[in-house]
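Deliverable D4.2, example record:
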Amino acid sequence: MPELTMEELRARIAAAGLKIPEHRLAMMKKLLGDALAPLSRVDSRTVRPLEPAVTFDAKGPHLGVRHE
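Output generated by the structure prediction step:
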């Protein structure tokens, strides 16, 4: 996995709706890079799922919603 660029970091921060001062971006880049490092070493194709994937059906049933 290539290193996170400052532009990608800014995009992630904006997507999360966070306000992080410009002078803190280098520290955030290192922290995020360190946090994501273990994931970059995993080949997800070799990981056997433990449960079926969650699915979503827009038709329902919708629990807790009154339909009249």
